[in-house]
Specification:
The structure holds 2 protein chains of 2 kinds.
Chain A (H helix, E strand, L loop, with lengths): L5 H9 L6 H12 L3 E4 L6 H15 L7 E4 L3 H17 L6 E4 L5 H9 L4 E4 L1 H8 L4 H5 L4 E4 L2 H4 L3 H16 L4 E6 L5 H8 L9 E4 L7 E4 L17 H10 L3 E4 L3 H13 L7 E4 L5 H12 L5 E4 L14 E5 L5 H8 L11 E5 L3 H15 L13 H14 L4 H8 L10 H13 L13 E3 L5 E3 L2 H9 L9 E6 L4 E6 H6 L5 E4 L2 E8 L3 E6 L19 H12 L9 H13 L8 E8 L2 E6 L5 H17 L4 E6 L4 E5 L6 H4 L7 H9 L1 H14 L20 H11 L4 H13 L1 H13 L3 E5 L8 H6 L11 H15 L32
Parallel strand pairs in A: 1-6, 1-7, 2-4, 2-5, 3-4, 5-6, 8-13, 9-11, 9-12, 10-11, 12-13, 16-20, 21-25
Antiparallel strand pairs in A: 14-15, 16-17, 18-19, 19-20, 21-22, 22-24, 23-24
Helix pairs in contact in A: 2-3, 6-9, 14-15, 15-21, 16-18, 16-19, 16-26, 23-29, 26-28
Chain B lengths: L7 E3 L4 E4 L6 H7 L8 H16 L3 E4 L9 H4 L2 H13 L1 E5 L13 E3 L1 E4 L2 E4 L8 E3 L4 E6 L4 E9 L3 E3 L10 E2 L3 H4 L6 E6 L4 E6 L1 H6 L1
Helix pairs in contact in B: 2-4
The chains are: A alpha/beta, B alpha/beta.
């Protein structure tokens, strides 16, 4: 085991610290020039461990030029860590320069950094990609000795992670000797992360140093007094209990699952905030300045609580946080541990957290998560292959820095772990797309972006293409957003455009912890004023809710099956389960319980799958097609995280056949073709690959859409060139990124035809929650958009007193057809 | 008669009207370094061919912005050009000029600023006089249905003026409630959303229209 040089040892001693074993192990690895993945729980001095070898080396032999590059997914983290490194460097009198670089860095500093780079540069994957696209990248990075990658677990497996992996492969070409240090929180499977960190893309080429956590976290549950709700997932009825706990702790983070829930929980806490406790709100749609203010107030200990979404899952250590409250189902053990770890950021002390379930099923899920945490059973997804859209962006940016040979570039790319299995054909097709679109109809030769010289090297055709490529850089594709701004006041944040389109002036909505009245749409923003009356809407966001992990679902099923373990549950839950047992059956661990019962002139079919809401929605779509084919007359369905309920005109029989594995054959194909999910995926792929321009918030919204709607492109491309590389990339993304089809397949495989069908005369206790969701949730009838339009048309016509919706009118004749004047349309119909 | 494809069919005169074909929008993007699939002209012309086959018009009026820009005709692929020539050989074409393609295309047919037939004016940008048939704005409308909002291109009319949706494969849309469209229909409007096999009709009230 290595030791610290004297200067460093003295510095540690002066603080009463001693170096931890993993910090010393990293010094050894640094001296040996080996790449390392360090897996340690939060609060283990991980970041310092990553930098120690570099600091020691630079202390021993100071030199100009870039020595160590640090990459973090969070800009704020880079800034914070720079501050945390500057202090010890100064105190030890080290001659080391440390700087950050991000989109916020002033232009003059950025220019200077290229001329005379600091020894330690702290940055983000996007800023690194930009630096690598500049012609002087070779000069800047040639002296690089070490790359530190923070929060590897949060990057690997994402498109940002793909981009960084390609950037690291580029760095390995520019600076072949540089070693890598990956820092990761505890994960289920470190293998893929080792491969990600290794310069060769092979796990065995990165040493694994693992530190087990100290004390296991203590997680409890709080239940409201009185009755336990059957349905809902906001957890607002527990606000008094949450508030009581805020009062008893120094600083609390109240984690919730969605931004909408954050607004509502924040609102309910302030309604009862008799002590005027400083409680703040933090989520990804709020204005950056506002978020930074909340974070700073938190760091200074000025806040007693902050209601937050995953926007605070990662980030700066706040020593002061002594309590974490999770409102609503935790959804996964790894996610819960990450959140719990935000309290008591010291490794040897146990973190404390409480879970607040929002309904009965969530009580089961919380209990399962508590058991999962005790057993440290982490969730993990297998690595997915790197995106071809990210590769396309990378190839163009790389050509911007200088010409390359395709063969050498292919060899470089497959050294990045996410692309290790990339076939040459996919690489070549991606490169052809970058060149001129790569269409079978080779009509874009004239407007190519890359050209080959006589030796076969690829060049970018002109500086305009390079400028455009840099403008389009990045892998995060936001839904079209609109800024929310107070009249003659500041910007509060951004909401999705579709939500604004649903508002009419005078409507109220909750945002940024305020009640706002919508005044109207101005050029590029939604103008609002504080206050208002009426029932406020709450903005929801694309992909807001996560599904429960398979591990956790498995634990829930196991608990249900074993009445001996029910004692952990509150009395209402125990009674509920006992009643279910006597009236019907309990869902089994390996079979699938399906109940059918009549109610209100309809037949209900309830399947207890426990595969998460998204998977259930897909299943509901598929099931509707099958019920239709079997002649049961499906009328609609609703999905929760735990259960799928369909209702039909006729009594469903032969239920086992409905759940046969062939479900994923033709029905799935048919569904996929129409799926909005594939269109959404294509939009992301087209933006990242550089086929269409990125939507920029604040950019001038011209009247007619200048940008081309990617849905239209998707339709045309699918019809005329279904095997185009971007469609292949889209399908690969959809298959890999979309877990719901995989989860349905897994479920059908697990039950292997073991369907337990209970024919009941009335609704069972366990089915009550999902039936309550009907009307609360969007009901997805099997109907397509056209059916929905027809239904609404008939409804409007009826309300307007037209017996029949008028047929398409004749050509407006020269004589205007008089139309009866009607009163303005009913408020309930938002037209 | 309004066709769910977004075309207008006038049986008495055997006239078919389409608007805003925006041919070669794909290649226009490619010129600017965005390699959109080059199949938009083909897709648009295929749909137009189907309509011609179904209705057998004696005249086709293209209400302007037939090409996405003035250089569009020069970029047209050889077989797409051949297809237009074939269509123009079967039936008379009227090319109304639009803001995107102010120069008349080198294609057979009449190139005009506006066309008047039976007292009705056919022009690209509406708002001059009524009765009038126009395009230009690419109207679409979003309707709240059970569970979700459905947004589709649409016809807009108040009985005196009819605005056609854009027919081109890559043409997006502008909400019919936007002032640019709503001001042309001060008495309120009725929209006809394009569906798979039929149109769906809804009134859009003046109050709502003015609010945006």
């Amino acid at each position: 085991m290595g030791t610290l040089p004297e200067r460093f040892a003295a510095w540690f001693a002066a603080r009463g610290w001693s170096p931890r074993p993993h910090q010393l192990a990293l010094i050894d690895a640094g001296e040996a020039g080996e790449s390392v993945l360090l897996v340690a729980p939060t609060g283990g001095g991980k970041t310092l461990a990553g930098f120690l070898p570099s600091l020691i080396e630079l202390a021993h032999t100071p030199r100009p030029g870039l020595h160590t590059l640090y990459v973090s997914p969070l800009k704020a983290l880079a800034v914070d860590i720079a501050r945390n490194l500057l202090a010890p460097a100064e105190e030890m009198g080290l001659d080391v320069t440390i700087e950050t670089r991000s989109g916020d860095t002033p232009a003059n500093r950025r220019a200077r950094q290229r001329e005379a780079p600091p020894n330690l540069l702290l940055t983000t994957p996007e800023s690194l990609a930009l630096l690598l696209s500049l012609p002087d990248a070779g000069k800047m990075f040639g002296s690089l000795a070490c790359v530190v990658i923070d929060e590897v677990h949060a990057l690997a497996g994402t498109k940002r992670g793909d981009q960084l992996a390609l950037g690291l492969a580029r760095l390995a070409t520019l600076a072949p000797g540089a070693r890598r240090v990956g820092l990761s929180a505890t994960v289920a499977h470190p293998g893929p992360l080792r491969a990600y960190v290794a310069p060769t893309g092979r796990a065995e080429d990165a040493m694994l140093i693992e530190t087990k956590g100290g004390a296991p976290p203590q997680v409890g549950m709080i239940l409201p007094d009185g009755t336990l709700p059957w349905a809902g997932h906001m957890g607002l009825f527990s606000a008094p209990d949450i508030y009581a706990r805020l009062r008893d702790a120094r600083t609390t983070i109240v984690f919730v699952n969605t931004r909408a829930q954050a607004e509502l929980v924040f609102d309910s806490l302030w309604r009862i905030n008799d002590d005027n406790l400083p409680i703040a709100i933090h989520h990804g749609s709020l204005e950056v300045a506002q978020r930074r203010k909340v974070e700073a107030a938190m760091a200074e200990g000025k806040l007693r609580a902050v209601v937050a979404t995953s926007s605070l899952d990662l980030g700066i250590d706040w020593a002061g946080v002594d309590q974490v409250i999770q409102v609503g189902a935790p959804k996964g053990v790894s996610r819960l541990l990450q959140r719990v770890g935000r309290a008591n950021h010291r490794m040897d002390e146990a973190s404390r957290a409480v879970l607040v379930p929002a309904n009965r099923f969530e009580v089961l899920e919380c209990e399962a998560a508590i058991e999962g945490v005790a057993a440290m059973e982490l969730d993990g997804d297998p690595p997915r292959p790197g995106g071809l859209d990210v590769l396309a962006q990378h190839l163009l940016l790389t050509a911007c820095a200088g010409p390359f040979m395709p063969d050498a570039m292919y060899a470089e790319v497959i050294r990045a772990a996410p692309y290790a299995a990339l076939g040459r054909r996919d690489f070549d097709d991606t490169l052809r797309f970058v060149e001129d679109g790569g269409y079978a109809l080779a009509s874009y030769e004239r407007w190519r972006r890359l050209f080959r010289d006589s030796e076969g090297r690829m060049h970018v055709v002109n500086t305009r293409v390079a400028r455009q490529a840099r403008m389009n850089l990045g892998t995060i594709v936001e839904a079209p957003l609109i800024k929310v701004r107070l009249a003659r006041g500041p910007v509060l944040g951004e909401i999705e455009e579709y939500f604004v389109n649903m508002l009419v002036p005078g409507d109220t909505f909750m945002f940024a912890g305020r009640l706002l009245t919508f005044l109207g749409l101005r050029e590029t923003w939604a103008e609002v004023r504080d206050g208002g009356s009426g029932t406020p809407k709450v903005p929801a966001y694309e992909g807001g809710r996560m599904p429960m992990t398979t591990n956790l679902a498995d634990r829930v099923r196991a608990m249900l099956q074993d009445p001996a373990r029910w004692h952990a549950f509150p009395a209402p839950v125990q009674e509920w389960l006992a009643l279910q047992k006597s009236r019907s059956r309990l869902p089994g661990r390996r079979d699938l319980l399906v109940e059918t019962f009549p109610r209100g002139g309809r037949w209900y079919l309830v399947a207890y799958c426990f595969e998460g809401r998204q998977a259930h929605q897909t299943l509901g779509m598929l099931m509707t097609r099958r019920l239709e084919r079997f002649g049961f007359g499906p009328l609609g369905y609703v999905a929760t995280d735990y259960v799928l309920a369909c209702w039909c005109a006729h009594r469903p029989t032969d239920v086992a056949r409905l759940f046969e594995q062939d479900m994923l054959g033709d029905d799935l194909e048919a569904w996929m073709a129409e799926s909005s999910m594939l269109r959404r995926t294509f939009r992301h792929v087209a933006v990242i690959a550089g086929m269409v321009d990125r939507h920029r918030p604040g950019a001038e919204r011209t009247r007619r859409q200048v940008t081309v709607n990617t849905d239209l492109i998707y339709d045309v491309l699918r019809k005329h060139e279904p095997d185009h590389i971007l469609l292949r990339a889209t399908r690969a993304d959809a298959a890999g990124g979309l877990t719901d089809v995989g989860r349905i397949a897994g479920m059908l495989d697990r039950i292997g035809g073991r369907v337990t069908h209970m024919v009941l005369s009335r609704v069972s206790p366990l089915a009550v929650p999902v039936l309550l969701e009907i009307g609360r949730e969007n009901i997805h009838a099997g109907a397509g958009e056209d059916d929905l339009l027809a239904e609404t048309e008939a409804l409007v016509a009826e309300a307007m007193g037209e017996a029949d919706p008028p047929p398409a009118p004749p050509v407006p004749a020269p004589r205007p057809q008089p139309r009866p004047r009607r009163r303005p349309i009913q408020a309930s119909l938002k037209l | 008669m309004l066709d769910p494809s977004g075309a207008l069919w006038w049986p008495d005169r055997r006239v078919l009207v389409v608007s805003d074909l925006h041919l070669e929008k794909g290649s226009a993007a490619a010129v600017r370094g965005r390699p959109l699939p080059p199949y938009d002209s083909r897709a648009t012309l295929e749909r137009l061919t189907l309509l011609l086959r179904r209705y057998g018009p004696s005249r086709v009026i293209a209400l302007g912005d037939t090409f996405h820009d003035d250089d569009g005709p020069a970029r047209l692929a050889a077989d797409d050009r051949a297809r237009i020539l074939r269509l123009a050989g079967q039936t008379a074409f009227v090319w109304v000029q639009g803001n995107h393609d102010p120069t008349p295309p080198d294609l057979p047919g009449d190139a005009v600023n506006e066309w008047v037939e039976d007292g009705i004016a056919f022009r690209h940008d509406g708002g001059v006089s009524t009765p009038e048939i126009c395009g230009h704005c690419h109207p679409k409308a979003a309707i709240e249905t059970r569970g979700k909002w459905v947004s589709r291109p649409c016809f807009v009319t108040d009985g005196r003026r009819l605005m056609l949706p854009a027919f081109g494969a890559y043409t997006g849309g502008l909400d019919a409630r936007d002032r640019a469209i709503a001001q042309l229909f001060p008495r309120g409007m009725r929209v006809f959303l394009l569906g798979r096999d039929r149109l769906y009709s809804f009134p859009l009230s003046r109050a709502r229209a003015a609010a945006i």
